[in-house]
Design goal:
Blueprint (H helix, E strand, L loop, with lengths): L9 H7 L3 H7 L3 H21 L14 H17 L1
Length: 82
């Protein structure tokens, strides 16, 4: 995401491995990034609600972290196949 100010912590930037100058030149604005994120979330929600084939095939919904991760992986995979 494009930086929104000139204030930053150089040490934090170094840890991230990001190139601030490149972000300024090429990254989407915060508004663009949030709109893209909202579209992605809405696609996932629609896929989940519509029962996209391939979503949650035979997986119990246990709320166990590993099972939840497997469920989400299936949902993401199904959405990407759309």
């Amino acid at each position: 995401m494009k930086p929104i100010s000139d204030t930053f912590v150089p040490e934090a930037l170094a840890v991230s491995g990001l190139d601030r100058d490149r972000l300024i030149r090429e990254a989407p604005t915060p508004e663009q990034a949030m709109a893209q994120a909202a579209r992605w979330v809405n696609d996932l929600r629609a896929a989940w609600a519509a029962g996209v084939p391939g979503c949650l095939d035979g997986l119990p919904h246990t709320h166990h972290a590993g099972d939840d991760a497997a469920e989400l992986a299936q949902v993401f995979e199904a959405v990407l196949r759309r």
